[in-house]
Automatic annotation (TrEMBL):
The chain crosses the membrane at residues 12-30, 42-58, 78-95, 101-122, 131-149, 155-175, 182-199, 211-229, 241-260, 266-285. Keywords: Membrane, Transmembrane, Transmembrane helix. This is EamA domain-containing protein. PANTHER family: ACYL-MALONYL CONDENSING ENZYME-RELATED, EAMA DOMAIN-CONTAINING PROTEIN. It comes from Thalassospira lohafexi. It comes from the Bacteria. Pfam families: EamA (PF00892).
Length: 299
């Protein structure tokens, strides 16, 4: 049995959880890198671009496409890619400029931010539970960002918020257009973000274990976790994927605490608990509503 067949035979929840487990060390590895912020961002994105290029060419070869057709993005893939590139660049810059727990908690609110963006930009209706959860989460995020306002974490917190909005835009455009090739979009976004880092990067100023952390991030953590999470998302409802994704904030913060000895502030712990609890309750209610809808006989 091939690896692809084995993936297809696994339950979506296990696939998504495997993806989360793979991506959880992301923030910890970023904090271990000694190179400056822009250089670290440049190499992380450059390796990610290379990995995505190889995946795109492999998928294209399986379809019988030419090299150009395998990687050339369409109109909506350009937009989706810009959101993805922004997410990747802003995430690493955020982790380097604030407590990792702050970044991970703020990013974990992406599903609700995506819902709000869907209402105001894409004119999609949202149930009352999403509105209530959104208000609670926004207040908690304001608490985290506001606590660091004017301090050393202010820039990183704001970058994390921008990354969350970019990710929300990525999911909204991806969900609105079923024909979008996510790999092509991500490849374009990662490539553009890499080029944006070139003017400020010092590519030769990377030494020792930094190469190992960067290679691990670019060729394993990011592309492989995406493959598992995407495979899981095709098998289970979005609410369940969102619930499983919350484990990244918990596991990622725990790893940073154990390895880097970075203890989250009391404000982050309290507001983070509010955000995660709200998202858990919202996801559970969404799953129940989905089951009731599927159980209702068609008229």
């Amino acid at each position: 049995m091939s690896f692809g067949d084995r993936l297809n035979n696994l339950h979506g929840g296990w696939l998504a959880l495997l993806g989360v487990l793979i991506i959880s060390p992301d923030a910890m590895l970023i904090r271990l890198i000694k190179a400056d912020d822009i250089t670290a961002t440049f190499w992380r994105l450059a390796f990610l671009t290379t990995a995505l290029l190889l995946i795109a060419l492999w998928r294209g070869a399986r379809r019988g496409d030419s090299v150009v057709a395998s990687v050339l993005p369409g109109k909506y893939e350009l937009l989706t890619g810009m959101f993805y590139g922004g997410t990747c660049a802003l995430f690493i810059l955020s982790v380097r400029n604030t407590d990792a727990a702050n970044t991970l908690v703020i990013i974990s609110a992406t599903p609700l931010l995506a819902g709000l963006m869907g209402v105001f930009v894409f004119k999609r209706a949202q149930p009352m539970r999403t509105w209530v959860a959104s208000v609670v989460v926004v207040v908690a995020l304001v608490g985290i960002v506001g606590a660091g306002f004017g301090g050393e974490n202010a820039l990183g917190d704001l970058l994390a918020l921008c990354a969350a909005f970019c990710m929300a835009g990525f999911f909204n455009v991806l969900g609105a257009r079923a024909e979008i090739d996510a790999v092509k979009a991500m490849l374009f976004g990662a490539c553009m973000a890499t080029l944006a880092m070139v003017p400020g990067a010092q590519p030769t100023e990377v030494y020792g274990l930094d190469w190992l952390w960067l290679l691990t991030l670019g060729f394993w953590v990011l592309p492989v976790s995406f493959l598992f999470i995407s495979a899981g998302a095709r098998k289970i409802p979005a609410a369940e994927v969102g619930l499983i994704m919350l484990n990244e904030a918990i596991l990622g913060s725990f790893l940073v605490w154990v390895v880097i000895h970075e203890v989250p502030s009391s404000t982050t712990l309290i507001c983070g608990a509010v955000v995660i609890t709200t998202l858990v309750v919202h996801s559970i209610l969404g799953m129940r509503a989905g089951r009731r809808l599927r159980a209702t006989p068609a008229q």
